[in-house]
Amino acid sequence: KPVKKTGGFTLPIIGNRPIEQQLPILLTIAALFGALTIGAIFLDARNRSNISTFTNITSQLQYHSQRLAKSAGLAARGDLASFPQLQDSRDEFQRYLNVLNDGGEAFNTTVPNARISEELTSRLAELTKRFSDGSTAATAILTAKTDLSELSRNIAQVRAGSEELAELSQDLTGLMQ
């Protein structure tokens, strides 16, 4: 048998094998770690994408809740321009809330539901309940669109008529003196 010369360092487990056997084992281990690294990078990118999408959704929920409140007040006064905003914000809020509750597509990204902890699940349930009440009120305002716009027009006519009456009464008072 030929005598092996060892340099001082030998690999554990495979160090007693010839170099021709060690190299394929080391390449296989390196490929395995490379595949694990690629998998970790993929999972990290997907999680970051989901978190970014959830952040965008919550920003949109905040925007639409403020817009919903503003347009509901104006629509209740009969402002015709606010009815489309009210309907759009109600529908968009519902769509984004559904994505958070059930998962789905938002901002060209498909995300799972956001119920990843008990706290998020309870907050989503509370938000869903509160939005249900608000959505019912918005629907009632949208349903009464013609009545509210007629009422607004009648109030404007009364206001214009009362200004004219005030002028006439001042003229009459001036004539009577």
Largest sheet: 2 strands, antiparallel
Total strands: 2
Q: For the terminal residues, how far apart are their CA atoms?
A: 139 Å
Strands in their spatial order, largest beta sheet = 1-2
Would you tell me the structural class of the helices and strands? mainly alpha
Q: How confident overall, as mean pLDDT? A: 89
List the uncertain runs.
none
Share of β-strand residues: under 5%
Q: Helix and strand string, N-terminal first?
A: HHEEHH
> How many separate helices?
4
| Helix coverage percent | over 70%
Structure description:
- The chain is mainly α.
- The protein has helices at 19-76, 82-102, 118-143, 145-176, and strands at 104-106, 109-111.
- Strands 1-2 form a two-stranded antiparallel ribbon.
- The chain is rod-shaped, with a radius of gyration of 35 Å.
- The model has no long low-confidence stretch (mean pLDDT 89).
